[in-house]
Amino acid sequence: MVYAIVRAGGRQEKVEVGSIVVLDRAQAENGKIELAPVLLVDGDKITHDAKALAKVTVTAEVIRDERGPKIVIQKFKNKTGYKKRQGFRADLTRVKITGIK
């Protein structure tokens, strides 16, 4: 079983070939992106050395760009009449992992 832990935006994600992952919005060239591996597990062999990981490439194909759920931000201060309401939706990219080499 081969899988990798990749750096995607501000998080790390566990990916395998064929898995679908939702990442922060990524700029794709021709619908393909490369992700930086942090750890590689190939059967019983675990690679975490930076020099060895520089040779490893994790490629992904962009399925679609989408937006996350709405997050409501509310601020309130008691006895002053101050209320503020703000919304936020994150820009996301859904990708399918095509290869770990």
Automatic annotation (TrEMBL):
<comment type="subunit">
    <text>Part of the 50S ribosomal subunit. Contacts protein L20.</text>
</comment>
<dbReference type="InterPro" id="IPR036164">
    <property type="entry name" value="bL21-like_sf"/>
</dbReference>
<dbReference type="GO" id="GO:0019843">
    <property type="term" value="F:rRNA binding"/>
</dbReference>
<dbReference type="InterPro" id="IPR028909">
    <property type="entry name" value="bL21-like"/>
</dbReference>
<comment type="function">
    <text>This protein binds to 23S rRNA in the presence of protein L20.</text>
</comment>
<dbReference type="InterPro" id="IPR001787">
    <property type="entry name" value="Ribosomal_bL21"/>
</dbReference>
<comment type="similarity">
    <text>Belongs to the bacterial ribosomal protein bL21 family.</text>
</comment>
<dbReference type="Pfam" id="PF00829">
    <property type="entry name" value="Ribosomal_L21p"/>
</dbReference>
<dbReference type="GO" id="GO:0005840">
    <property type="term" value="C:ribosome"/>
</dbReference>
<dbReference type="GO" id="GO:0006412">
    <property type="term" value="P:translation"/>
</dbReference>
<keyword id="KW-0689">Ribosomal protein</keyword>
<dbReference type="GO" id="GO:1990904">
    <property type="term" value="C:ribonucleoprotein complex"/>
</dbReference>
<dbReference type="GO" id="GO:0005737">
    <property type="term" value="C:cytoplasm"/>
</dbReference>
<keyword id="KW-0699">rRNA-binding</keyword>
<dbReference type="GO" id="GO:0003735">
    <property type="term" value="F:structural constituent of ribosome"/>
</dbReference>
<keyword id="KW-0694">RNA-binding</keyword>
<keyword id="KW-0687">Ribonucleoprotein</keyword>
<protein>
    <recommendedName>
        <fullName>Large ribosomal subunit protein bL21</fullName>
    </recommendedName>
</protein>
